Structure formats: C-alpha cells, structure tokens
Amino acid sequence: MIIVTRKDISKEDYVRIERRLTELGFKLHPIVGVERIVIGAIGDRRTIDVQSLASLPGVEQVIPILHPYKLASREAKPEGTRILIRPGLEIGGRQLLIMAGPCAVESREQLLEAAQVVAAAGGDILRGGAYKPRTSPYSFQGLQEEGLRFLSEARAVTGLPVVTEVLNLPDLDRVAEVADIIQIGARNMQNFGLLRAVGRLRRPVLLKRGLAATVEEWLMAAEYILSEGNDQVILCERGIRTFETATRNTLDLSAVALVKTLSHLPVVVDPSHGTGRRALVPAMAKAAVMAGADGLLIEVHPNPAEALSDGEQSLDPSQFTRLMEELAPVAEVAGRSL
Length: 338
Hints:
The chain has helices spanning 11-23, 50-54, 108-121, 145-158, 172-176, 192-199, 215-227, 253-262, 271-275, 281-291, 317-333, and strands at residues 2-5, 27-32, 37-42, 59-63, 83-86, 89-91, 97-101, 125-127, 162-165, 181-184, 205-208, 233-237, 267-269, 295-299. The protein is an alpha/beta fold. The strands form 3 sheets. Strands 7-8-9-10-11-12-13-14 form an 8-stranded parallel beta barrel, surrounded by 6 helices. The two termini are 37 Å apart.
C-alpha cells in the first residue's frame, strides 16, 4: 500500500500517519519525492480501513499495490528514481551514463590503459571485474584483492567512479571500500542473503537480470534490496537464455521498455553480454537507448584478442571511441545527453 502525503503536510500530521501505520503492524519505507513524501506500507491490508486512513490530515491519496514488488513499483514513485553517483553525475535523469571497461581486471597495465581509453572517449564510469564468476573452475577467476587495488588506482588516475561485482558475502566489505557502485551479477540475482546485505549498505547497487529470470523475479530481487532500506538500485538487462544459439544470450530490449512502465528504478543495458558478439554491440547499444535505457554497460579491452575473459564481445579502443561518437546523435533523438 502507498500513502501519498499532501504538499503542505505538517510534521505533526506526518508523525501521526506513521504512528497509526506502525500501530497496525505495517513496516514503513518513506520515499522522499520532489514535492511529496510517499510512504510504502508493507503489511496486511485487512488490518486497516483504507477510507479511515485516507481521511487522516495530511493524506492526499492511498493507493493499493497489486504487484508483489511494492517498493520497486512505479506507483511507489511515479516521477522515477534518480541516483547520484557523485556530484554532477546521476543516473535516471536526462544524462545517458556510459559504464565501460574490461570484463576482468587482468593486470595493472591493462586496467590503466582501458580506464584512460574510457575517460578519453567520454565514458562516465569504469567497469572491471576483480572477482569473476566463471562457468569452468579452470577459467581465469580474476585478481581479486589485487584487482581491487588496481581499480582504486585507476579511479585515482582518471577520476572515473568504479563499478565492480561482489560474489560472496565475506568479500562485501572489501568490495564496498573500492566500488562506487556494487554489482550483483546474473548468477547471484537470487542470492537473497547477498541482496539483503547490500540492501543494508547506503551504496548504489547494479542488479543484473538472471540468466532465465522473468521480469517479475528480477523486480522481486530488487525488492529485497529496497526492503532493507537501500533505495539506490539500478537494474541491468544483460540478455536471457533462450533456444537461440546464434548469440550468447537473447537481449530482451522489450523488457527495458516494460520495466520503465512497471518500476521507478533506472535501467541500464549490457549489449556485450547480451549478444556475446563484438560486431553486434554498437547496434544493440543504440537500440537500447531508443528503448529507454538510462545507461549502457560496455566491455572495452586494450587488446581483445588477448583477453582472459570475454574477448570476443569486447570493443577495442578505436571501436569504443567510434561508438561514443555515434551514440551522441542517438541519445539526442531519445531526449538524452552524453
């Protein structure tokens, strides 16, 4: 249930509403909007007379939420969520954010070169995996703590914020010391203990859609984070597993447009994992912008032929620079700016 307050609500009236809801056993999640406060009330609606609640001073509207994802729903925040990454850089507004860098941090030299390419081309955020979940236990698993140190150095050198993935709960504090945005990968989308843990942090979280997750399951995963008090959730469409084998995954751009109607959370698209093919990344990146994406997550490697992870879907420096140039007019048509 969503309670929308009036613009001119007094502090006393607001406290009275919260007290009444708490007495009835509801768990409250206030969402401060531009003009109003919206209270997400999670609990059994049968314990309350909706009409009596709507008549309380300071209440403008009471909205029942039929979706199982109460806090992630568009009704909870109709104007949409904007997440401040750092002063002057936010996602969910007019700006199209570009997160780019190598799939895996392989060495100090490789990461610094990639970071400088991303910064020079106009990218906003450096991506790089210090911890890598791989299908085979014999594949490169990342440099882990050493990789985090290299990411921290790259941020200091280029000024780019960092997004990197956490795999396990014991590593969360270590990752949080470095990451401006903490990534929850597709394989961990329903790792509920990890979701609750990042929900207790006051740090932006990039939540990737699971390999075969429905849109509702994806939004319910976001609900776990939101329910712990962290409202800084960014959704990431990275392709789902279907019968098609011509591409690594099936990039579901319809889900981007759909989620924008269902949820207030910003959405980014990963065309690199979504297709698994370097030649398809530029076209799918542009299509994602037109579908309503708030940002892109693109793999860039100084030498994709020698990459230890996902080289076949990584752009080289010249390809990334060209894509950034081509994205500018597309973003403008979509009402965005780079």
